[in-house]
Amino acid sequence: MNTSTSSLPTPPSTPGATSSLPRIAVLATGGTIAGAAPDAANTSGYQAGVVGVDQLLAAVPALSTVARIAPEQIASVDSKDMALPLWTTLAQRINTLLATDDVDGVVVTHGTDTLEETAYLLHLTVKSDKPVVLTAAMRPASALSADGPLNLLNAVTVAAHAAARGQGVLVAFNNRIHCARDVVKTSTYAVDAFQSPEIGALGWVQDGRVEFQRGVVRAHTLASGFAIDTVWPHVEIVASYAGVSRIAVDALVAAGVRGIVVAGTGNGSIHQALQQALAEAVSRGIAVVRSSRVGSGHVMRNGAAADDALGFVSAGTLNPYKARVLLMLALAAGHAAPAALQRVFDTY
Ligand code: ASP
C-alpha cells in the first residue's frame, strides 16, 4: 500500500487547536482511489474498491492538521457499476450528516468513471450549503506515484475551507476545483483526467491553499427544486451516428421508458431514421432530450432539430450522462411536458 505522506503544514502546536478544526465526514464508495494491484508498477490491472476507508486515511497523516475526520464506508464498488439505489443511499446519508451540527462538510471518495454523474446528482439533491467535495484517483492506492493520497488531502482541505460553502457540490482533482455541473472525465489514463470544457475549473487547491476564481451561476443544492427519491424514472441514452437504425429507440419504447436522451452529432443533430422514431416516442408521452456527443459546447434549441414541432428538449451544455441525471430528477418531480422540461434544462 502507498503510505506516502505529504510535506504539509506541521500539526498545530497550540494546545486545544486541533479541537477547533472543521469536522469533515469522509464517505468512501470504492473506485481506483481504493484500488490495489499485484505490484506497484501496475496502474491498469488492479481491482477497484478493495482498500478500506481507514487505510486510505492512514496513508495521509497530514489530514489531522486540516480537519477532524469521521470516516464511513458507504460502499466498495467500481464506479462503472454505480447503481441507482446506491445514489439514493449516498445522497440521503450526506443530507442526514449535513443536517447535524456535528459535521461541517463532506468528502466522497469515488471511482472516476461515473464521478461526473454522481457529482451532478448530489449538486441537485443535497439540501445544505455546507461543502460537499468528491475526489478520486487515476492510479490505484498500491501504485508508484499514486495520486489518491494528495487528491484526498486536497479534497478535505477544500471541504474544510470557508470559501467552499454555498458553491454547490465540488470535485477536487489534480489540484483543481471543479463545479459538479461542468466537470467531465476527459482522459482514460492521464492523472490530469478531469476538465470543465469551455468554462474551466472554479479554482485550485495546493499546499493547503484554496482559491476560487469564479462562481457557480446555475441553481443547485438549497436552490434546487429536486429531492432524492427511492423511485427512479427509467431513462436511457441512445447515440446518433452514421448508419444508425431505429431499433434501439423502438426497443426502449417497448420496454416502457419514461425518457430518452440522445447523444446527437454536432449541435445535437439526429439521423433522420432515429429522429422519426424519437418523434413517435414523444407522441407516446416519452420525454426526448437532445444532447451532443461532441464533448464541449451547447445544443441550441430549435437549432439542428425542430424542437418546437417535434416536442424535443435541448440539453444545453449538459453532456448526455448529466442530461440523463437531470431528466430522471425532473420526471420524478412531475415535470413531463416538453415546455416544462425545457424550463428545467434552462435552469439547472
Ligand atoms: N473503474 C474505476 C472506477 O470508476 C476507475 C477509477 O476509479 O479511476 O471505479
Automatic annotation (TrEMBL):
Entry keyword annotation includes Hydrolase: yes
A molecular function (GO) term: asparaginase activity
Region Disordered, annotated ranges: 1-20
GO BP annotations, alphabetical order: asparagine metabolic process
Superkingdom to which the source organism belongs: Bacteria
Domain (Asparaginase/glutaminase C-terminal) ranges: 234-345
Residues binding substrate: 79, 112-113
InterPro entries found in the cross-reference section: AsnASE_II (IPR004550), Asp/glu_Ase-like_sf (IPR036152), Asparaginase/glutaminase-like (IPR006034), Asparaginase/glutaminase_AS1 (IPR020827), Asparaginase/glutaminase_AS2 (IPR027475), Asparaginase_C (IPR040919), L-asparaginase_C (IPR027473), L-asparaginase_N (IPR027474)
EC number: 3.5.1.1
This protein's UniProt keywords: Hydrolase
Sequence ranges assigned to domain L-asparaginase N-terminal in this UniProt record: 23-215
Broadest EC class assigned to this enzyme: hydrolase
Catalytic residues, chain numbering: 32 (o-isoaspartyl threonine intermediate), 32, 112
Family in the record: Belongs to the asparaginase 1 family.
NCBIfam families linked to this entry: asnASE_II
Protein name per Swiss-Prot or TrEMBL: L-asparaginase
Species classification: Bacteria, Pseudomonadati, Pseudomonadota, Betaproteobacteria, Burkholderiales
